[in-house]
Amino acid sequence: MATHKKYTTTFKDDEITAHNRTFAIGGVSCSADSLVVAKSFLLRIKFSGKNLVHRKSAERYRAFKKNAMKRNLLEKYEENNVLRALVNFIPNIGGSLDILLSIKGSKWREERLKTFLADLDKRVGEIEDQEVIKKISESEEFYDLIVLSMNSIIKTRHRKKIECYSNILLNSLVLPKSKISSELLIATLDAITIDEIEYLSELKNNSNEIKIDIIEGKKIIWAKYLKHLQQTGKENIPNESVFDFNIDLIWKLLNDRNLILTESKKEFKYLDYTYSTSMQSMQSSVLSTEKITYTMSDFGKEFINWVLK
């Protein structure tokens, strides 16, 4: 059976004990394997003896322990034998729950960090401006952002959302400074779901505005439905004319977060269209009972430009 040495690092009166070669940087726990993944990234940004950023990590770690950046509950659970024993006493699911919270949970966190660091390293490698590289190694702001991001990344399984955190970090280096702080962008990304990101992406792909009509109780993209009517003259609603992003709750959440503006106007209005038969051109109309417009807010435009490539 393989054995593991126990490594202990002491910062003044605080003792941090790590099992299985696990290290803490900025309040984020990561294994030696993750540090190997990060190796080329750290070398690329040229940490040196003159660099204050990494030398500050031990000092800052003590501060992180006193606030919300300290180790998360799952990490504490792994080290609490009493709590783990109690969980194992839970009938039927106790053993499975313990494995999920400890062994598998730790593995998933490591995989998420590896994905993030590998993507970040690849994107940094594409930067040709050496002044930007220098900015990475000397920027206290970048240090704060990467710690915030790593603490968020271990809490999401979605690759696209992990990529969004990388985008914020890289854009903080290469784009003109935003009117919105990078910390607020990360906090907003923390708060929204992957579904909300997909809805914002769809809105961006439609020039930041989507107009739909309610026809026969369905959300219809009029431009697509009109094309169908003109070609066939049949008022059946094809699937491609139905607005796929039709969950009202998600649009409401985005509106409540000031990422979009929603305008809804209930009115009975006949929408005219013309179609041709073999004999002549015909005119007809369909009834719309409501028009809804989703528009990206100024904050939403800035946010989505930073979190998406």
Q: How are the SSEs ordered, and which strands pair?
A:
Elements: E1 7-11, E2 14-18, E3 22-25, E4 28-31, H1 32-44, H2 52-55, H3 57-65, H4 73-79, H5 81-88, H6 94-125, H7 130-138, H8 140-153, H9 159-174, H10 182-191, H11 194-205, E5 209-215, E6 218-220, H12 222-232, H13 248-256, E7 260-276, E8 281-296, H14 298-307
Antiparallel strand pairs: 1-2, 3-4, 5-6, 5-8, 7-8
Helix pairs in contact: 1-6, 4-6, 5-6, 6-9, 8-9, 8-10, 9-10, 11-13
Distance between the termini: 47 Å
Structural class: alpha+beta
- In N-to-C order, the SSE pattern is EEEEHHHHHHHHHHHEEHHEEH
How many H/I helical runs? 14
> Radius of gyration, Cα only, in angstroms?
26 Å
What best-fitting shape do the alpha-carbon axes yield? elongated
- Unreliable residue runs: 1-23, 45-58, 60-70
Can you give the helix content as a percent range?
40-55%
Mean of pLDDT = 77
Q: Percent of residues in beta strands?
A: 15-25%
Number of strands: 8
Largest β-sheet summary: 4 strands, antiparallel
Going across the major beta sheet, what is the strand order? 6-5-8-7
| Tally of individual domains | 2
Task: Please provide a written account of the structure.
By secondary structure, this protein is of the alpha+beta class. The chain has two domains: 7-191, no CATH class; 198-307, no CATH class. It contains 14 helices and eight strands. The protein has helices at 32-44, 52-55, 57-65, 73-79, 81-88, 94-125, 130-138, 140-153, 159-174, 182-191, 194-205, 222-232, 248-256, 298-307, and strands spanning 7-11, 14-18, 22-25, 28-31, 209-215, 218-220, 260-276, 281-296. Strands 6-5-8-7 form a four-stranded antiparallel beta sheet. Strands 1-2 form a two-stranded antiparallel ribbon. Helix 4 (73-79) crosses helix 6 (94-125) and helix 8 packs parallel to helix 10. The protein is elongated, with a radius of gyration of 26 Å. The relative contact order is 0.09. The model is unreliable at 1-23, 45-58 and 60-70 (pLDDT under 50).
